[in-house]
TrEMBL record:
Sequence similarity: Belongs to the FliM family.
InterPro entries: CheC-like_sf, Flag_FliM, FliN-like_C, SpoA-like_sf
GO molecular function, one term: cytoskeletal motor activity
Residue ranges constituting the Flagellar motor switch protein FliN-like C-terminal domain according to the UniProt record: 254-324
Highest taxon listed in the record's lineage: Bacteria
Membrane-topology descriptor: Peripheral membrane protein
Keywords (A to Z) from UniProt: Bacterial flagellum, Cell membrane, Cell projection, Chemotaxis, Cilium, Flagellar rotation, Flagellum, Membrane
GO biological process, one term: bacterial-type flagellum-dependent swarming motility
Gene source species: Paenisporosarcina cavernae
Locations listed in the record: Bacterial flagellum basal body; Cell membrane
Official protein name in the record: Flagellar motor switch protein FliM
GO CC terms in record: bacterial-type flagellum basal body; plasma membrane
Length: 332
């Protein structure tokens, strides 16, 4: 009672009980001292804090956006994927919650131990298959009778789709997802103990006019080594990742090979609009540049050097004389 906040009605009822003698102050004090016992289900042990669950939600919201782009390109139709929920439940409860016949991809995620499951609702799975084989994306839900060719097509699709998970997870772990098994009956999956805690990320999925769920099941044993990386403090510390020497070398080489326009100005002049409109072939426009003065060399439209015009191997050329100070300005 000490940790509860009473409403005004409850306060009025309590005062009324005291005034009428229905309850004494000693009884109220005894009730406050009574220990409150809260039931705890050890089969539903909560291994992750709310902070860690929020981090997993953010990661997989990014994964959902990447999947939306990937499947839209592969299926050439309207696709919308969004995170519906992120829960931690026993593995047995997850198995009971999905259809008896469904499409389950089992992935290894080295260097982490254990496997990750990606369960695709039959409506969604067969709609994808129909699109990949040139159909309109109609779902017929015959997952239990996939041919070898159909299984291979679906395997290739989801194997490539998990590359997006690598990108979504890159801030917490560098994983390399590998598809190891394609299963249609969840009862045959004996990955972990039935009471083991798993995190289940459910995605609302719309493909054309077909809708359904995609679930990703991540056992606690997979996430255990990187649980500290799911904290807000870790995310704040890694917000600005240090650039490795290899990345710096690649960036430097790309900058060095970038193309820039270089223009040597012979001079410039100003004329009136009337003179401009009256210009005829063979007319001469006098520039403000004297012949004995050096020219200005512009790099990317920015004056950077003074140069001297000349010829090199029968081609016009300029010789750099000096660097202009304040060359970051457009004005000379």
């Amino acid at each position: 009672m000490a940790g509860d906040v009473l409403s005004q009605n409850e306060i009025d009822a309590l005062l009324s009980a005291l005034s009428t003698g229905e309850m004494t102050a000693d009884e109220i004090k005894k009730e406050e001292e009574t220990k409150k016992v809260k039931n705890y289900d050890f089969k539903r042990a909560l291994r992750f804090s709310k902070d860690q669950i929020r981090s997993l939600t953010r990661i997989h919201e990014n994964f959902a956006r990447l999947l939306t782009t990937f499947f839209s390109a592969q299926l050439r139709t309207y696709v919308q994927i969004s995170v519906a929920s992120v829960d931690q439940i026993p593995f047995e409860e997850f198995i009971r919650s999905i259809p008896n016949i469904t499409l389950i991809n089992v992935f290894e995620v080295p260097p982490l131990d254990g496997n990750i499951l990606m369960e695709i609702n039959p409506n969604i799975a067969y709609s994808m298959l129909d699109r990949l084989m040139g159909g309109a994306g109609i779902s017929t839900s015959k997952i239990e009778s996939l041919t070898e060719i159909e299984s291979k097509i679906m395997t290739n699709l989801f194997e490539r789709s998990f590359d997006n998970l690598r990108e979504a997870w890159m801030n917490i772990s560098d994983i390399d997802p590998i598809l190891t098994e394609l299963e249609v009956n969840p009862q045959f999956l004996q990955m972990i103990s039935p009471n083991e805690t798993v995190v289940v990320i459910s995605f609302n999925t719309i493909i054309g006019e077909t809708s359904g769920m995609i679930n990703i099941c991540i056992p606690h044993v997979v996430l255990e080594p990187i649980v500290p990386n799911l904290s807000v403090r870790y995310w704040m510390q890694t917000n600005k990742k240090a650039v490795s020497p290899e990345q710096l070398a690649i960036l430097e080489n790309r900058v060095k090979s970038a193309s820039l326009p270089v223009v040597a100005e012979l001079g410039h002049s100003e004329i009136t609009i009337e003179d401009f409109l009256l210009l005829q072939p063979l007319d001469v426009i006098q520039l403000n540049q004297k012949i004995e003065e050096p020219l200005v060399l512009r790099v990317g439209n920015i004056p950077k050097f003074t140069v001297q015009p000349g010829q090199l191997k029968k081609k016009m050329a300029v010789q750099v004389m000096e660097t202009l100070k304040g060359g970051n300005d457009d004005d000379e």
